[in-house]
Amino acid sequence: MISTAPGVEKMSAFFKVLGDPTRLEMLRRMYTSEHCVCEFVEMFQISQPAISRHLRVMKQAGIVLERKDRQWNYFRLNEQDPFYPLLVEAIKELGELPVQEHNLLRIKC
């Protein structure tokens, strides 16, 4: 069995996150501001457990940070992550969010 360096594992986790379309769209939205789980549920029209699983994968990869505020958990990009510059480039390649998508960013729980 071949052992892998920690950097290889980190990079693999990073690309696993980017490899899922829903997570990639969630990251694109977190590029402009932090969001809570309920906002993502409303934006994507998928279940809260599914959103939480996506956020857990991103958090475990170190790409996303969580901030607790009373009963709400807010998620944002981790600007200290070594792959943050690469993530920003990937997000920019996706282009601007359509105008109707910007309206969804204003959802409040």
From TrEMBL:
Keyword vocabulary terms for this entry: DNA-binding, Transcription, Transcription regulation
Molecular-function GO term, any one: DNA-binding transcription factor activity
Keyword Transmembrane in record: no
Pfam (any one): HTH_5
Domain HTH arsR-type: 3-98
PANTHER family: TRANSCRIPTIONAL REGULATOR, ARSR FAMILY, TRANSCRIPTIONAL REPRESSOR SDPR
Protein name: ArsR family transcriptional regulator
Organism for this UniProt entry: Jeotgalibacillus malaysiensis
